[in-house]
Amino acid sequence: MKNTSPRRTMRSREGAEIAPRKSMGQNFLVDESISKWIADQIQPDDAPLVVEIGPGMGALTEHLVGRPKKLVLIEKDYQLAPELQRRFEGREDVEVIAQDATRIDLRPWFRHGPFKLVGNLPYSVGGEILKHWLTPPSPVGCAVFMLQKEVCQRLGAKLGDDGYGALSLLVQKDWDVEMLRIVPPEVFNPRPKVDSAVIRLTPRDPASLPVFDRVLFDRLVRMGFSQRRKQLKNLLPEPPRSWQELVEALSVAASVRAEELSLEQWVQIARWYENRTEADAGQKASEVFDVVNERNEVIGQETRGEVHKRKLLHRAVHIFVINSRGKIYLQQRSHLKDVSPLKWDSSAAGHLDAGETYAASAIRELNEEIGIEVTATELAAEIPAGDNTDHEFVELRLAKHDGPIRYLPEEIATGEWFMPEDIDAWVEARPQDFAKGFVTCWKAWRSQALH
Ligand code: SAM
User: Which residue among 53, 106, 151 has the greatest number of ligand 1 atoms within 8 angstroms of its CB, and so is best to mutate?
Assistant: First the structure.
């Protein structure tokens, strides 16, 4: 390993003197073999897209460039970013974005599909970068980061490990974390005071945990770990039924502390506060819908199971919720859905109940699915039944809403407000990410809006 003197200035490729800036978390890698090893961990070869955060003077970049189909570099430093731009000018497969990686809008990135993210992160804003890029919904499919060893240990710690705490739980509820290796200070200029480490994060299988309210989970975990020495019963609010019943369900002592409970037990606690006593169930095959003929006239009723099995024509409503800034709320369907699990979909959508009108169904679905109360919606399009609507006669309706969205985790995995232009580009690039009925509705609505 090369030995470096602390905080010496470095010479950039263009010959400029660079004095590493502490405020920008600039600890540059000066060891070729570690740099290459980190770049290899993201398996960049032939990947459609690799994004590097904080390329700096290009230690990792050199081992990435030319390997994926597209490499995007995000650098905030006003001196280093233009130099990188000049260096890769004319290369179609490399793009340099001179922006702050803690603030960049990630919504236009969904159109690329889950991509690979890598970085020797600026330790000063490592936490903010993790939060910004990895909080669901995240367009990232795999991330390899170098951070302080102690932070990596906290991120990956399991029950009983050093560093196990709120950060471990908040990240691991959505990501599997692997510790890849420890990296000593000598490979950096300037040398950091502490060891570093490299971790890999991959999305957790959503079926690996029962469903739970993520906002409530975060709140309870933060409360539970706010004073480590205290017993949990003195930190959490009074649970439904009693504390004694809750600890019995968890098979732990009444005096338990936050750090003595696993991720699975914390999920169980969140479910307890939500009063979820039953195992997760998918949709009921016994719901009854109106069955219609080719002219959308009601000709009888059938159960949901029969309607889908026999491909009978029936009715559904889709609603696009639009806020005053012109953004549209899209939901990602829960993994428990029997049709199109984990696909992105309209703000709310559903079958009409037997005897129900489209307009009444829209108001009901908005309330049941995403907790919005409206008195009316506006008809935007009528779409005949066909393969592209899963044999549904669909009405697309619009609703205006600026407030919060509350959804049931068994129905919806996550959701986000998107600009219509971003959705256009995403639908065009990756129609496979969306429920079929949504794509049909989206195209119908956009073709009207654009004419
Ligand atoms: N990748 C280079 C290496 O391994 O030698 C540099 C790593 S250095 C630890 C962190 C890099 O992130 C620096 O180039 C710094 O300018 C950049 N940086 C700091 N804050 C940033 C931010 N908010 N957004 C993007 N880049 C940032």
Answer: 53
Half-sphere exposure of 9 (CA within 13 A, CB side): 7
Nearby residues of 69 by Cβ (< 8 Å), 6 or more positions away: 46, 47, 48, 49, 93
Residues in the chain: 451
Assess if residue 382 is contained within a domain: yes
β-pair type (392-400, 140-148): unpaired
Residue 110 pLDDT: 98
Q: Which residue, 96, 170, 90, is CA-closest to 130? A: 170
Tens digit of pLDDT for each residue in 46-80? 999 999 999 999 999 999 999 999 999 999 999 99
**Strands 196-203 and 140-148, sheet pairing:** antiparallel
Structural domain span for residue 234: 214-273
Indicate whether residue 59 lines ligand 1 (CB < 6 A). Answer: yes
Cβ contacts of residue 162 below 8 Å, gap of 6+?
A: 153
Same domain as 310, residue 429? yes
CA of 53 to the centre of ligand 1 (A): 7
Query: CATH code at 30?
Result: 3.40.50.150
Q: Strand 71-74 vs strand 94-97: parallel, antiparallel, or unpaired?
A: parallel
Any ligand 1 atom below 6 A from CB of 83: no
Is there a contact between 39 and 63 (Cβ–Cβ < 8 Å)? yes
More confident residue, 147 or 339: 147
pLDDT digits (tens, 9 = 90+) for 401-432: 998 999 989 999 999 999 999 999 999 999 99
Nearest CA-CA partner of 156 in 136, 141, 170: 170
Q: Are residues 191 and 52 in the same domain?
A: yes
- Compute, in angstroms, the gap from residue 46 CA to the centroid of ligand 1: 25
Nearest ligand 1 atom to the CA of 100 is: 24
pLDDT in tens, 286-337: 788 899 999 999 999 999 889 989 999 999 999 999 999 999 999 999 999 9
Establish whether residue 196 lines the binding site of ligand 1, counting it when its CB lies within 6 angstroms of any ligand atom.
Answer: no
Structural domains of the chain, count: 3
pLDDT at 250: 96
Question: Stretch 254-264: mean pLDDT, rounded?
Answer: 98
Strands 28-29 and 188-189: antiparallel
Last residue of a domain, one of 205, 231, 265: 205
- Residue nearest (by alpha carbon) to ligand 1 atom 18: 54
Judge if 254 and 221 occupy the same domain. yes
| CA 167 / ligand 1 centre spacing (Å) | 23
* Rounded-to-integer distance, Cα 400 and Cα 325, Å: 10
